[in-house]
Each structure stands twice: as C-alpha cells, then as structure tokens.
Amino acid sequence: MAEHLVAAGCRVRVPSLLGITAGDPPFWPRAVSAVRDDLGPVPADSPVALVAHSNAGLLLPVIRSGLDHPVTGSIFVDAALPARTGSVPVAPPELLEFLRPMAVNGRLPRWTDWWDEADTAPMFPDPVMRRTVVEEQPALPLSYYEQRVPVPSGWDDHPCSYLLFSSPYDGLAAEARERGWRVAHLPGTHLHQIVDPVGTAQRLIELAAVS
C-alpha cells in the first residue's frame, strides 16, 4: 500500500516492529525506538501523521510522546483504542484466556494460526499474498500480551481519526466517534489493506487531510 501513497504524492515511512520482542519485557519502549530511529532521516521539524493497524493502535500514544517530530494526526485502522490516560492492557482477560493454552515454552504460534481456516482464508486476496504475510509474521511471546502500555496524559490533543474495515471493530469505531474523531468506513475484512490497497490509501489521505 505504501507505493500507492507515494504515487499520490505522500512521503511514507514503514518502520519494522518485527524485532521489538527481542529480550525481556516491557516491549513497548522498543516500538517507540524503532519508529523514532526510522524517522531519523526525516528533518525533525517535518510534521508527520501516524497510522496504526490492529493492536498497534495501543502503541500510538507512547510513540507520539517519544518522537521529536510534530504529529499532525493519528489514524487508527481497524485498531484497538488506547485509554485517555493511565495505562492499557495489550490483551483483555478474555483474550489472554484464549491465548495461554496455545503458548509453547512461552511463545505463541503466528497470528494466522490462532484461527480456523474459514476465518483466515477470506482475509487474503490470493495465495501469493497470503504466503508473503504468513511468512513475515513473528511468533510473539505470551508476555507481549501480558504487558500494559502507559498512556501519556493529553496524547489525543491533536486530530485523531478511525478507519473501520470489519464488523468486530464496530464498537471501537463507535467509541472513536463518541470521542469526536472523524470515522470512515471501508467495508472488508481485518486485513483489507492488502485486498484493496488503492482504496485504503485514498481513505488514509482523506483522513490525514482533515487532521
């Protein structure tokens, strides 16, 4: 999808978070460092818009607070919402109850292996894309989901918006709307950005423009 944003005139950085679970918890400071390091070549006075998908939404407040760059907007894509302040669990109790029996020596299977084939297959547009995504997935430690992420007070004092793909995130999109955020809907599955990268890029551009 990044290439479609670039084609539309956007400057795009896609920091890798694959290494943030190396070592012991807490893991969230490594996510902050990964994004900050990736933005190193970008002048510090250049404004940025942050975009997070799924559970990475919980990391946006600490990422924003750890950057030298001014943040003009945060966009949550079919994503978990941070609290307003305090801290937030990476996984609620019911998800941890689901995950713990899967862990082997403290490590979970890849995310796509958590679910039945009937649930995962519709998320991918073709076998090649599926193989690419599956092979890139890390096998995360259970302790990643047992951590809490701090939520800096006032993190949402800038324009925030929500892009909804799938029905399991309807409630979170409704909460975002209650917070006064702009909410857009692009119907699809949780990985709709790989099914319709052009449409997703366009929605992101629209949301960033009003941020």
SS strand fraction: 5-15%
Radius of gyration: 17 Å
Helix/strand-derived category reads: alpha/beta
Mean pLDDT: 95
Low-confidence stretches: none
| Helix share bin | 25-40%
Oligomer: single chain
Number-wise, the strands total 6
Write down the overall geometry.
Answer: globular
Q: Give the topology string: H per helix, E per strand.
A: HHEHEEHHHHEEHEHH
Number of helices: 10
Give short descriptive properties of this protein.
about 210 residues; alpha/beta; 4-stranded parallel sheet; two-stranded antiparallel sheet; 10 helices; 6 strands; about 35% helix
Would you write up a description of this structure?
The chain is of the alpha/beta class and 211 residues long. Helix content is 36%, strand content 14%. The protein has ten helices and six strands. Helix 8 (170-178) links the parallel strand 5 and strand 6 (182-185). It is globular. The model has no long low-confidence stretch (mean pLDDT 95).
What order do the helices and strands come in, and which of them pair?
Layout: H1 2-7, H2 28-38, E1 48-53, H3 60-65, E2 71-77, E3 86-89, H4 93-99, H5 117-120, H6 127-136, H7 142-146, E4 148-151, E5 160-164, H8 170-178, E6 182-185, H9 192-195, H10 197-210
Parallel strand pairs: 1-2, 2-5, 5-6
Antiparallel strand pairs: 3-4
